[in-house]
């Protein structure tokens, strides 16, 4: 399977900040509520990868909330009570398919980090052969994902952890593989999406959206329908590049505008 050369571009743009503080006016002059609890939900989704399967062993999800006024939790880390531990195949969650892995109520305040704790049962299947993935740091303290988002009491916030399986798996020189996760965190409150279809389906194209600021995200077309969806894009004008398998030819679509909370639909892309 051919993967777009641009997939090595860093795709780590995180969440936009909402300046909200307890009993103070924000930039719009509105009084914000920063007392009580908010509800958070975390979904797992995946960017494309040229493997048969990529399994990750999810144990726990924590969030770091500050300025909450909760003196009983001095370090700010809160373990989400409704975590769904298990071994997930990342390649099952592409083109808008995701799965809820954790949720719970947390004190209102600023979320600065998310911690994803993995177990030892991580593996990659390459050409039908299963290989273990070494993840020492994840097993010990968890993968720390920096975000910058402020939670208001009484509101439900939903986040997506876009696990870039292709760039997260590193082949070792002496054989075997390491897992060095690259995860993009986004919420649909502050981002938009691009979707469409590629014809012919046999082109099995990788799809990359990138803007002038260097932000990028990718997808693979569905092998049955040719459909693709790229989510979590900051509002901007994007170039969308379609890179199919041989002998089909690469093609670009420029000036695709993405707006907050909107799915921008492209006409069917026909590849020669």
UniProtKB/TrEMBL annotation:
Keywords: Signal. PROSITE patterns: PROKAR_LIPOPROTEIN. The keyword Transmembrane helix does not apply. Residues 37-181 form the DUF4382 domain. Pfam families: DUF4382. It comes from the Bacteria. Residues 1-25 form the signal peptide. The keyword Cytoplasm does not apply. This is DUF4382 domain-containing protein. It comes from Owenweeksia hongkongensis (strain DSM 17368 / CIP 108786 / JCM 12287 / NRRL B-23963 / UST20020801).
């Amino acid at each position: 399977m051919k993967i777009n050369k641009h997939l090595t571009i860093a795709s780590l743009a995180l969440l936009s900040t909402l300046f909200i503080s307890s009993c103070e006016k924000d930039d719009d002059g509105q009084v914000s509520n920063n007392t009580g609890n908010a509800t958070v939900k975390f979904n797992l989704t995946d960017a494309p990868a040229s493997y048969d399967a990529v399994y990750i062993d999810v144990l726990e999800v924590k969030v770091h909330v500050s300025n909450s006024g909760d003196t009983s939790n001095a370090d700010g880390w809160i373990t989400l009570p409704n975590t769904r531990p298990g071994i997930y195949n990342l390649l099952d969650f592409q083109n808008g398919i995701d799965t809820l892995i954790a949720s719970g109520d947390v004190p209102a305040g600023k979320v600065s980090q998310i911690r994803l704790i993995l177990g030892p049962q991580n593996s990659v299947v390459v050409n039908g052969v299963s290989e273990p993935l070494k993840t020492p740091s994840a097993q010990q303290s968890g993968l720390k994902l920096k975000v910058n988002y402020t939670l208001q009491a009484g509101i439900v916030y939903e986040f997506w952890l876009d696990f870039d399986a292709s760039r997260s798996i590193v082949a070792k020189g002496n054989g075997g593989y390491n897992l060095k996760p690259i995860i993009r965190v986004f919420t649909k409150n502050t981002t938009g999406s691009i979707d469409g279809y590629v014809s012919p389906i046999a082109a099995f194209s990788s799809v990359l959206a990138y803007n002038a600021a260097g932000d990028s995200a990718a997808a693979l077309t569905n092998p049955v329908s040719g459909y693709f969806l790229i989510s979590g894009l900051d509002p901007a004008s994007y170039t969308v590049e379609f890179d199919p398998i041989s002998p089909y030819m690469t093609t670009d679509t420029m000036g695709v505008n993405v707006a907050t909370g909107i799915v921008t639909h492209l006409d069917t892309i026909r590849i020669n």
